[in-house]
Design goal:
single chain, alpha/beta, 60s Ribosomal Protein L30, Chain: A, 2 domains, four-stranded mixed beta sheet, two-stranded antiparallel ribbon, 7 helices, disordered C terminus
Amino acid sequence: MMKRRYLVLVFVSLVAFCVFGESGKQEEIDFLLFSPNSGNQFVNEAQAMIQLDNVANFLMIRNLRPGQISVYGYAAAVVNGIDPIKLSRDRALYVINELQKRGLSEDLFAGPVAYGSVDLWGGKTDEGGRGLNRRVRILLDDTILTPATLQAVETWAKTPYAGSPRGVTQHRTSIKNTDSHFPWWIIPLALMGIVLTALIILFASGGKGSLTVIPETAPTAAPATVPTAPPIEKVYVLMEAEIRRHAHDLYRQRNGRNGDATEDWYRSIRELTAHYEARGFRVISLYRGMPALAA
């Protein structure tokens, strides 16, 4: 009896994973990607302008409160002398300005959030992987806006967007009420699950054809939880110039007495690392010998 119930629970869990697992898919990789070392140029300008149009249209018909829209900026995890915090902030601020050009009020946005160097979408060992981290995220409260989120926007006309210096085409839209849309495709999947569950129970009983009916009061499987995005880690790259400046300050504080340059160097690394870790950053110390790459 317990074995049959266990098989049923396993199968229901697998079906629930197939049904609800779609919402945990990785964000679309070509959404608002920036060119290397640039805070105001996209890899695909025409595509990015259309994506910004769709985001603006999606937000314009909502009754938003001040500060409800957040824009996060990111940079690739490389070392080339460019401040990744400033670069990622410039990217977030650029997207905010583009959305304001499309009619969204300035007070709807929280301040731009700079996450600096990350490797959340691609690796950092090759350019293909690094390019996926040169991006922004647009959040409405805690919901990340992606092309999948914006599928509710139906394009019904195209008119020239006069406010765009590039003369791109703006998509005018009407919005479906997705809150009441029932996913009818779940019904055949559920029916298939019922049939397969019956077959599993039948085979588990030795093929004798006797099925055990579970009473209505029997405990049911807990609803599957929707996977959530992993927490975003803030990374700070501790550069050689900053280490050297702090080590020199230590030297000056004791007027050059009772110490040596090596101890000042490693003390500088320890103190700067503790300073940034106390503010929630994971610190990476990079100095001599690192290759110059695009951020």
